[in-house]
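Quarterly update, task 2.4: zinc ion-bound model.
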Amino acid sequence: MVIVFVSILLLITWLTVVLSLHCNTQNNNKPKGAEIKRKAQKKSDAVRKKALMTRSQWYTKLKTEIHRWIVHVRDKDKGCYTCGKTDPSVKYDCGHRHHAGRGGGDRRRFIEENLHKQCSVNCNQHGSGMPVEYDLALDIEYGAGFADKLKCIDNYPTLKELFPTHHDIELEIIRYRLLNKS
Ligand SMILES: [Zn+2]
């Protein structure tokens, strides 16, 4: 009789331990499962968002990266392209010789020779980009006649020729992102 009682007691203890372990495992899995689900949802949202992006939105992303590269990497140690100012307290922009144009379709908007570090207020804003000084600086840097070459839009491929698909723009964004990190 005592043996039966002890056996039942042991069985109950064992069942309690097993059930408690089972519950703990389930509780531990719950947050993990939710986290995986949340990450998967985030990834699928990002893919959907990317698929819905327009060409113009891709260009805006590319613009951010290329401008950052011009001001903070390529021309980092140079002064303003049109006045030479090197004051570190001055804000600098990426100044275009020829602007992106209405709707951002100008085919020179991502041509590196058309983009240079320029002081934000004096030259870029108040001086409207200082076109005369800009052309002089272009001819000095790239050779006589370069400013005229850059003026003629037919010397450059269209944006659609440069980037036939959205993916081509994305690759260019990735390229500049890497350059900005190095
Ligand atoms: Zn300037």
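Highlight for this quarter: Residues 57-181 form one domain.
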